[in-house]
Design a protein that fits this description.
Layout lengths: L5 H13 L4 H20 L4 E6 L3 H12 L4 E5 L8 H9 L6 E3 L12 E6 L14 H11 L3 E4 L22 E5 L11 H5 L1 E5 L16 E2 L1 H7 L14 E5 L6 H13 L4 E6 L11 E4 L17 H5 L3 E4 L9 H7 L5 E3 L2 H8 L10 E3 L3 H10 L8 H12 L2 E4 L5 E3 L5 E4 L11 H14 L4 H15 L12 H13 L9
Length: 500
């Protein structure tokens, strides 16, 4: 999904109204979708405190307040009978049983432990000028409260086009539900840090196809749902793809198990694992080929020579997780696999150490973290101090490989110039073994026959969505089963489940 400017967003809304959707209908769609997602994500909170600004963002908040099943109190920045336009209709539709308190000033004591705060203070019309009361004190009090925040459309105080923050600060959200399309500012400047988990609620708008140099391709749940088609009822395991994973030396046994389990949960019909790792802890559902370990604990140089039958019977290959110190022959042989290949971790380290072994071919996906990407860039003579987006694109072009540059807002780039930023994920995914899970997930999609760029985009999104809703305590072992649940939710268009 392309990000849009405020001007384009307003033209999209105007076009929808010209086509028969009145403004209040759009507001209702936005509020109804937001209420579903907030109920799923924050349903265990004891109370919802809804902050309603004086404009249409406040109207969205009033619709949400009427629909939440939690106990609700509304703090309005103007009197209940002083809203205008569509927001006035939302105020009229708010049940009288919902407490409404007009506020001229906010303090942290307005919020209680266990609250979730719904931020509907300022929308896309905020222009960056210093804030007046009660908005200035509201933002300060929200951020000082320690309560989780669900922002409607964008966090208040954030400029929708640039991602800059007001002179008086901006709301720090745990989750932002943006309506119709993603605004530029949610992926630029302070936007990614301020918005937290990002959800896109469709409200019946059409994004124009014209050029926009400021637009970013953000991969969202709406994009993922388009390719997460239901399985044919008469399918069987061979139709779902067979994946070979060559992973796990003696010292890094967890990599093999995590990648294998993720591949199974992401839908591979069959997973073959070739590993020198101990058998204990590995999924029972995979087909295991045990390999001897070298004295250093890594995989032997003739690994792929031992796997002729497995290579011939597999649709895709994942290679590199947990290899340890290995001979460059393994990289050469992995690149010679006839089908799609995903290279991660120690396979990428071998490529950086022995760049002469690299063979440009089609169907390769690489998944470096920033350190691995920097080593590859140095080994292949790429310019220094590139942006993350530029580095991913340069690696993709130089190596003729779909490049997944991991990190917050993971970048996926193809050698033909296509690139996108991932719209799912959160800080809890920064945990050991998370990358091994990602490798297995993308590998399963490659084995299913999905085109490498599309497989990388979807795999990254599934992985990110599996980690949403966690603030701490997540470990890589938790991710595979959640990936299966996210996949099912996308196939059924149950988007609110992605944020529970």
């Amino acid at each position: 999904m392309r990000t849009v400017s405020v001007a384009v967003m307003r033209s999209m809304e105007a076009e929808a109204i010209r086509s028969g959707s009145d403004g209040y209908m759009l507001m209702r769609r936005a509020g109804e979708g937001a209420a579903r997602r907030i109920s799923s994500r924050f349903g265990t909170c004891s109370r919802a405190v809804v902050l309603a600004g004086g404009g249409n963002n406040g109207g969205d908040a009033l619709v949400v307040a009427a629909l939440l099943k939690l106990p609700v109190v509304v703090y309005g920045c103007r009197a209940r009978n002083a809203f205008a336009g569509e927001a006035a209709q939302a105020a009229a539709d708010l049940p009288q049983t919902v407490p409404f308190l007009e506020k001229e000033h906010f303090s942290p004591e307005d919020f209680l432990p266990g609250d979730v705060i719904i931020d509907g203070l300022l929308g896309i019309g905020y222009d960056g000028r210093p804030l007046r009361e009660p908005y200035r004190s509201a933002i300060a009090a929200v951020n000082a409260s320690g309560c989780p925040v669900a922002a409607l459309d964008l966090p208040s105080g954030l400029l929708a086009d640039s991602g800059a923050v007001s002179p008086d600060g901006a709301v720090q959200a745990a989750m932002t539900i943006t309506f119709g399309a993603v605004k530029h500012g949610l992926v630029k400047g302070e936007g990614p840090r301020r918005c937290g988990e990002l959800a896109v609620e469709p409200i019946g708008l059409t994004i124009p196809s014209g050029p926009d140099p400021d637009s970013v391709e953000l991969y969202t749940e709406l994009d993922a749902a388009k390719v997460c088609l239901p399985l044919a009822f008469d399918t069987y395991k061979n139709r779902r793809g067979s994946l070979l994973i060559v992973a796990g030396g003696r010292s890094y046994s967890g990599a093999a198990g995590l990648a294998s389990m993720a591949a199974l949960r992401a839908g591979a019909g069959m997973v073959r694992l070739a590993t020198a790792a101990p058998r204990s802890g590995l999924p029972m559902a995979l087909i295991l080929r045990e390999l001897p370990a070298t004295e250093e604990g890594g995989l032997p140089p003739d690994t792929f020579a031992r796997l002729n039958e497995e290579c011939a019977s597999s649709d895709a290959l994942v290679a590199g997780p947990g290899w340890g110190h290995v001979s460059g022959e393994l990289l050469t042989d992995a690149l010679a696999f006839p089908g799609p290949v995903l290279l991660d971790a120690d396979a990428l380290n071998r490529a950086a150490a022995e760049p002469e072994r690299w063979v440009k071919r089609s169907g390769v996906v690489i998944t470096p973290h920033p350190g691995e990407a920097a080593r590859l860039a140095a080994a292949f003579g790429l310019p220094e101090k590139l942006s993350r987006e530029a580095l991913a694109q340069e690696l993709a072009l130089c190596l003729n490989a779909v490049t997944v540059l991991k990190g917050p807002g993971t970048i996926v780039a193809a050698s033909d110039g296509r690139w996108s930023r991932n719209g799912s994920g959160g800080p809890a995914l920064a945990t050991a073994g998370s990358g091994d899970v990602l490798s297995g997930t993308i590998g399963a999609l490659l084995a299913s026959g999905m085109e490498p760029y599309a497989a990388a985009q979807l795999g990254v999104f599934l992985h990110g969505a599996a980690g949403q809703g966690w603030t701490s305590g997540l470990i890589a072992d938790d991710l595979p089963v959640r990936i299966g649940a996210v996949f099912a939710a996308l196939r059924e268009h149950r988007f609110s489940v992605l944020f529970h």
